[in-house]
C-alpha cells in the first residue's frame, strides 16, 4: 500500500501560493486553502477483522466533522459479557496539526498493530485540522473525544453511547497516546482539563508521548543541525507552526512552547505517569530531552526511552516497528 505519511515543503512556481506541503495542502495569498481529498489516500474501517482487529467509525459531532475510529481485537468482537474488559487507548495522531487522519494507511496500520499487540481497544481521534481550524480546535476536539469515552463510565452525558465501549472497555485502565503533534495535543488535553482527576470515575492511568512536537523561537542544536533529507525538517516544522498557531503568534506561544511564561504551570497539575519516546536522529530530540527535564523538575513521573538510530515517525513508517507499550 502506498505511503502518504512523508511530507515536505514544495517550491512553488505559482506566485500566489504562500504554503505548499507536498501538494496535499496549499495556502494562497487571498486566504484560499486547497486540501487534496482523494479517496484512494484513505483506508475504510472494516468489521472483517483486518490483522486480527475489527474497526468502525463513529461520528461524535457532525457539525464539527469530529469522528473517531475504534479498533477492537477480534477475540472480543463477539463478546457480549462483561467478564473480560480491555484497556482503552485514546490515540491522537501527528501531522503538524495540519495533515493526516486515522484513515491514512500508515497511521491505520500502526493502530491495527497497536490494538493487536497490546490487547487494547484503541480510539483514534479525527480532530479538526489547521489552517482551516487553528489551535486550540484540535485540543477542544480531543477533549470532546475523551469526554465521550468518559460518558460510558458514568452511564450518562450528552453523547450517544457505543456498544463496544459499553461491553468491552475497562474504564479503570485508560491511557492517552500521542505522536508528534498528537503528543502535544495529549499534553495540552491533560493541562486544560486539570489533570487526571477531571475524569473520575474513569481513571487515566498513564500517557505515552512519542516524539512530542514542541517549538520555540530559539533553536536547539539538533534543530540547527537537521539534515535537509530528514523525515521532519526545520522547514516543515516551522510551516506546521505557521499554519496551526493563532494568527499573529510566533513559536513562543504557549501552545508550542511549554517554557513560555504564559504556559500552564506544570507543577500545579496532577499528571499521570508519562512515557516519552525520543528518536536519536529526530530533529526534535534536544527539545524533547529538555521537556522531559522540565517534567522531572516539576515533580512528574517520567520514563524516557531513546531509540538511538530512529528518525521522526519511525513507528508509523517502518512496517515492523512498534513502540514496546506492553513492556
Q: Which terms summarize this structure?
A:
single chain; 327 residues; alpha/beta; 8-stranded mixed β-sheet; 3-stranded antiparallel β-sheet; 11 strands; 22% strand
How many DSSP-defined strands? 11
Order of helices and strands: EEEEEEHEHHEHEHHEHEH
C-alpha Rg (nearest Å): 19 Å
What's the helical proportion of residues?
25-40%
Which sequence of strands runs across the widest sheet?
A: 4-5-7-6-8-9-10-11
Strand content: 15-25%
What kind of sheet is the major sheet? 8 strands, mixed
Q: If helices are DSSP runs of H or I spanning 4 or more residues, what is the number of helices?
A: 8
Shape: globular
Mean pLDDT over the full residue set: 91
What does this structure look like?
A hairpin with a 4-residue loop joins strand 4 (53-61) and strand 5 (66-73). The chain is an alpha/beta fold and 327 residues long. The chain has helices spanning 105-118, 137-154, 163-168, 181-192, 221-224, 234-244, 285-297, 314-317, and strands at residues 17-21, 25-28, 33-35, 53-61, 66-73, 86-92, 121-126, 169-179, 204-210, 274-279, 302-307. The strands form two sheets. It has an eight-stranded mixed sheet. It has a three-stranded antiparallel sheet with strand order 1-2-3, with no helix packed on it. It has eight helices and eleven strands. The mean pLDDT is 91. Helix 2 packs across helix 4 (181-192).
Amino acid at each position: 500500500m502506498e505511503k502518504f505519511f512523508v511530507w515536505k515543503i514544495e517550491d512553488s512556481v505559482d506566485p500566489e501560493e504562500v504554503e505548499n506541503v507536498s501538494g496535499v495542502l496549499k495556502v494562497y495569498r487571498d486566504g484560499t486553502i486547497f486540501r487534496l481529498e482523494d479517496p484512494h489516500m484513505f483506508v475504510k474501517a472494516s468489521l472483517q477483522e483486518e490483522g486480527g482487529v475489527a474497526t468502525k467509525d463513529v461520528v461524535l459531532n457532525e457539525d464539527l466533522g469530529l469522528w473517531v475510529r475504534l479498533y477492537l481485537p477480534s477475540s472480543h468482537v463477539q463478546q457480549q459479557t462483561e467478564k473480560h474488559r480491555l484497556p482503552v487507548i485514546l490515540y491522537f495522531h501527528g501531522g503538524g496539526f495540519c495533515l493526516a487522519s486515522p484513515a491514512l494507511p500508515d497511521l491505520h496500520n500502526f493502530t491495527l498493530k497497536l490494538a493487536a499487540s497490546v490487547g487494547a481497544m484503541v480510539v483514534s481521534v479525527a480532530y479538526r485540522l489547521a489552517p482551516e481550524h487553528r489551535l486550540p480546535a484540535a485540543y477542544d476536539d480531543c477533549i470532546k473525544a475523551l469526554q465521550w469515552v468518559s460518558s460510558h463510565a458514568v452511564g450518562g452525558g450528552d453523547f450517544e453511547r457505543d456498544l463496544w465501549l459499553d461491553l468491552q472497555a475497562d474504564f479503570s485502565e485508560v491511557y492517552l497516546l500521542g505522536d508528534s503533534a498528537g503528543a502535544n495535543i495529549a499534553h495540552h488535553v491533560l493541562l486544560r482539563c486539570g489533570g487526571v482527576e477531571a475524569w473520575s470515575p474513569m481513571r487515566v492511568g498513564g500517557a505515552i508521548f512519542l516524539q512530542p512536537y514542541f517549538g520555540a523561537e530559539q533553536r536547539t542544536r539538533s534543530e540547527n543541525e537537521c539534515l535537509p533529507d530528514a523525515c521532519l525538517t526545520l522547514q516543515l516544522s516551522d510551516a506546521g507552526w505557521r499554519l496551526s498557531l493563532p494568527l499573529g503568534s510566533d513559536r513562543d506561544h504557549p501552545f508550542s512552547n511549554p517554557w513560555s511564561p504564559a504556559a500552564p504551570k506544570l507543577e500545579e497539575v496532577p499528571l499521570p505517569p508519562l512515557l516519552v519516546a525520543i528518536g536519536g536522529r529526530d530533529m526534535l530530540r534536544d527539545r524533547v530531552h529538555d521537556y522531559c527535564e522540565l517534567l522531572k523538575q516539576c515533580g512528574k513521573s517520567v520514563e524516557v526511552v531513546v531509540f538511538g538510530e530512529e528518525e521522526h515517525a519511525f513507528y508509523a513508517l517502518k512496517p515492523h516497528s512498534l513502540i514496546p507499550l506492553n513492556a
